[in-house]
Amino acid sequence: MTVANLKHSTIANRQSAIARERVVMHVDMDAFFASVEQQTFPFLRGKPIGVCGDPDGRTVIAAASYEAKRRGVKTAMTIPEARRLCPDIILVSGHPAKYVDTSTRILAFYATFTDSVEVFSIDEAFLDVTQTAHLFHGPEEIARSIKAYIKEHFGLTCSVGIAPNKLLAKLSGEMHKPDGLTILRQCEVAALMEDLPVQELCGIGPRTQEKLNRLGIRTCGELGRYPEKKLTGIFGIVGSHLKHMGQGVDDNPVLPCYHEPATKSMGHSFTLDRDTRDPAEIQRHLLQLSEQVGRRLRRDSLAGRTVSLVLRYADFSTFIKQHSLKNYIDDGLRIYQVGIKLFKELYQPPRLVRLLGISVSGLVRDLKQMTAFENSRAGSLFGSLDAVNDKYGEFSVARARLQERTSAPRVISPSWRPGAPTPVAR
Amino acid sequence: MSTSATFQTSFWPVEDNPAGETELEEVEVTHHRLSETVKVYAIYGDSPHAGTVSRFPHDKLRPVMFIWRNREYRVQDVTYVWRETQGQAEVYHFTVSDGASVFELSYNAKALDWTITGTYTE
Known about the structure:
The structure holds 2 protein chains of 2 kinds.
Chain A: H1 3-20, E1 24-29, H2 32-40, E2 49-52, E3 63-64, H3 66-69, H4 79-85, E4 90-93, H5 96-110, E5 117-121, E6 124-128, H6 139-154, E7 158-163, H7 166-173, E8 181-183, H8 186-194, H9 206-214, H10 220-225, H11 228-235, H12 238-246, E9 265-276, H13 279-299, E10 302-313, E11 318-329, H14 332-346, E12 353-361, E13 364-365, H15 367-370, H16 376-392
Parallel strand pairs in A: 2-4, 7-8
Antiparallel strand pairs in A: 1-6, 1-7, 2-3, 5-6, 9-12, 10-11, 10-12, 10-13
Chain B: E1 30-37, E2 39-44, E3 61-68, E4 71-74, E5 77-86, E6 89-97, E7 101-108, E8 113-121
Antiparallel strand pairs in B: 1-8, 2-3, 3-4, 5-6, 6-7, 7-8
């Protein structure tokens, strides 16, 4: 091989390696809710705070500031537990609308660098900048711009991980928190994974970790070398995926909102302010939940024909029952009628009820456009009611029975995406 | 019976262990929740007002002073701004400080009115 050929071959190899190597960025807001509250209220800065829901309700810590985290307070910890670890913790009621607005604006900024932005949660996102990084002086410069924008405009910090895939981007982003920027190159992956405990990988929870440990697998290096057949024998098709995870391989694309799979079900659940066996109270909560589900279905032009009810008793035992209808529905009252029927079948008097949930699945979109709507009067009534509530806010017009509705639950779905309605307590 | 339905979980996770529930203790900050009309002097424009920094993406509108219960408060710092929709109305929330206390002011862009919704004093 001549020197010229060798040179050409090396360049071609490099170009092909560049073409193969994706550049994925994971951006995670640091202690998001707590940091927003510390920014909002200067007197909370530098102090251990825990953001929770209704102070009179039965909530846990939704987010802890770094000052509280250093004292051992963690997300989802009970309030007594947090107080034991950090007696001077300041508990703050959260403001979902504030976090939703902040997140939406930050996500809009991400979209100025690439159209490939996947919203992982309200405070985490993946960006695939493989095709666009060169326009902004490289991925590191994009990361610095994002950090600067968030700091300047919101006074917040975030941690960024840049790597060849989503698994490694998230892993590297979590290596240096808060306010970190970690770049992991493909050539560094094998060395990093060798001694990395398996539980450090996103997707390996305590149960999987325990199963892997029983097989003598403690590190990613061991997981990556473990025979695939044995793993699939134990974990099924996930076994193959686990082996790849151990090797730091993840071919999952960054999925922008508009590429996400269609919604399979839509539901709401609510933990009651106090346990009850009062039929009127239970009926009212179920009606409210059903109306909320119906409203969301109509807003997204969806209708479904399977209604599921979740019933949790005071002792935390939980029961689920579902019923499929012949016709598709998007009407809160109809959902409620099926729900109350399921409740009567499930309920064991005189047990106290702690949580109620109702969902509709088997969804189809744009049913009304595809078929002649069977009840045009009802359809037109819902259209008018929805228009009033769109204009004046949720529950501006509601069934008389919901006059005494519960002002909680302000919820953000785990599948929250920008553009979705902000949870409003009304 | 099992179901594939996924439920919208409560934004505020609920305690899994019902034992040991306690009321939240009061912190050293006094918070008053209000809903009173307030007279606000604000500046509007793309350029930050001299001596101030336009920190928030939607702070074209910036309160600089307000009169509440016959007392004048000069805004020293806008600590946070966020927007939400209430029906068709866009409502802008401003958390402002006069150096001693923090106030929450809301501007309804449809009704064109200002409300004071809370005060926090350390």
